[in-house]
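Quick log. Single chain, no ligands specified.
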Amino acid sequence: MTGPSPARAAAVTKPASLRARIRAAARGPASLRGRVTLGVLVLLALILAGLFTAVDVALSSRLHADARTRLTDRMALAEQLQGTLSMQRLADRLRGDGVVVRLCTADGSACATAASDAPPPGAGRRWGSRPGRPAMTRTAAVPVETAGSVIFVRQNLAGDQVLTLSLDTTQITDAVQRLIVFEVAGGVLALVLAGFASARISRAALRPLDDMTTLARQIAAGDRGQRLDPPRSDTELGRTAAAFDAMLDELEAGEVRMRSFLSDASHELRTPLAGLQANAELLLRENPDREQRERIAVAMVRESRRAARLVDDLLTTARLGQGLPLVAERVDLLVLAGTEADRARSLSPALTFDVAGEPGLFVDGDPVRLGQIVTNLLDNARHATPRGGTVSVLVRRHGPRVRLEVSDTGPGVPPEERTLIFERFGRGDASRSRHTGGAGLGLPIARGLAEAHGGQLTYADAGPGATFRLDLPAAAG
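-> predicted structure:
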């Protein structure tokens, strides 16, 4: 397996897309308040435009339909009254409500007209009826024609008479246009009031963001102890403020860890460097004999190796946090444990190393890094085990995983220190101090490498000594 894992790649992609959305939002108006206000005004303008358009279209259609119905009703009334009234009286009876009446003979020799600007002579008002509007009984089935702004109907009546009823729709158009003017004026006023109210409301609602900006500037100026402390965390801004506080806590803790790491690393490097410096100065100040020069050279080599190993451990620790590239191979864990036990046996001949387990238990992983895990566990065990003690390695299957256990007959690790030993530069009790062990990076590196292989490294309370348990996914097949 090479490169970052899919989960890590997804974790990198999500912040990238989040940053892209933030940059896209920043291209709008200068402030979030302005964007909210503009969005509200645009939405309100669209709603008002749609509502006013629907009202105008519906009203215009209704008024024109009423005008056409008025003409057809008058034509039906004319058919009922024809023959009972004279031409002029019939024309006067049909006029009103803007209807213009023209009743002529077929040859045009006689005509009677009546406009709607005056009431018909002698027209009385019946109780409960509107003046100038005749009673309607039915609607005539005659087509309504249009000539410009005038609509009209024409019908041949009995007695060779031609009746024409017309109505000018200019008043309807003017009424609709006046309504549009009122709607535009009212809409502009509503938008102004809505913009003012939206600005005030958004200013009050987004005030916590201004507080966050002020707090961020105070923290950037050096006041790292400031926090928002939102009273409620069940709202959008409350959750944002809580996440902001959590981020500040994590950054502050990370800064403390980084300072502690640098301090511990400097402290660990100081010892081998001081030894190298002392031995080098001894060679420069004195003229030692051959045997003494050899002892000084051996000491310098030992200290330089110790410094080199510490630098390698620091580099591995840094790479673990960035995603360590691994080479995938099929590894026999029992064979690997035997090889590393032989190396540890040559370094500590006073100890007994026992390796046992089931043969043919394979895992997929990087053999170099897996060997580093087993090496760190064996080094930790042999440094903690007194002379004549035993270090045992057991490899066996545990469900779908392969388990490797490294046990020693040393003093073990007290319960209160079992989490400390997996922290960088954490050593636990005195038996695992700098003088007998390493710098406190072996177990943290081993756990990080195990997790990089999809496994776990834990401390198991399985005996008088210390037992470390490594679980790795078994290879397929």
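The chain has four domains: 6-55+175-220, 71-116+132-170, 236-319, 327-473.
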